[in-house]
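Here is the promised in-class demo. Please do not try to memorize the tokens; focus on the logic of going from shape to residues.
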């Protein structure tokens, strides 16, 4: 546990001491004793950071082009969007004043493995990372939104995208085109593969929609299994 984690835990513990008597039914054991912070930490944190979480959700909803609905914005996911507003401002700056980009960004440092890692200054630790990136239609596992990248035109900016791990990014599409060195036969084969992939995705979306409309799939067994596991532990 790092220093910041300890500081947050101390703040939550103090806050818990103040609020638990107001809603004892949420924080007391059956024998009347208070639950430990570890047992109710998520609930306490939700109340402690309520105003901040609300502000993040409001800001995200007003930015436009968002891909998540209010129902999908869980507390964990909302907290991962805490820098969303900052990224939006950085993108606007890059669009309107490209010469200022260097002030708030840092280039990726390439380590050769034979020297000690260069320690960043405190200022650099808060800068955005800037790096050149290239993707191919045949590539796999790219972090950026491939569909958006291949839909945008040359010289266009992406929206601010979020990743499951909390990372956020946007990009500027400098150029796009075909690799002239790739043999025609390979290009044809790649085109066939891409068409097949698209067809499979369309079929799966249609199948999932039919399953949803007919209520043909139930996940209740997962809930029952979870309750069964809890009974075993108790």
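The designed amino acids, position by position:
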């Amino acid at each position: 546990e790092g220093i910041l984690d300890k500081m947050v835990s101390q703040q939550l513990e103090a806050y818990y001491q103040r609020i638990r008597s107001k809603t004892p039914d949420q924080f007391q054991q059956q024998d009347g004793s208070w639950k430990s912070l570890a047992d109710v930490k998520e609930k306490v944190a939700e109340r402690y950071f309520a105003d901040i979480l609300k502000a993040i959700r409001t800001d995200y909803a007003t930015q436009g082009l968002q891909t998540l609905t209010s129902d999908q914005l869980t507390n964990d996911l909302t907290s991962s969007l805490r820098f969303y507003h900052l990224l939006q401002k950085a993108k606007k700056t890059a669009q309107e004043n490209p010469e200022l980009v260097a002030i708030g960004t840092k280039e990726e440092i390439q380590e050769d493995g034979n020297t000690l890692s260069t320690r960043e200054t405190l200022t650099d630790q808060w800068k955005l990372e800037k790096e050149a990136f290239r993707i191919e239609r045949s590539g796999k596992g790219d972090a950026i939104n491939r569909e958006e990248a291949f839909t945008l035109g040359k010289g266009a900016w992406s929206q601010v995208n979020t990743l499951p791990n909390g990372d956020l990014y946007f990009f500027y599409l400098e150029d796009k085109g075909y690799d002239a060195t790739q043999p025609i036969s390979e290009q044809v084969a790649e085109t066939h593969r891409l068409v097949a992939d698209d067809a499979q995705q369309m079929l799966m979306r249609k199948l999932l929609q039919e399953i949803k409309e007919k209520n043909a799939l139930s996940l209740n067994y997962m809930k029952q299994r979870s309750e069964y596991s809890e009974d075993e532990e108790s």
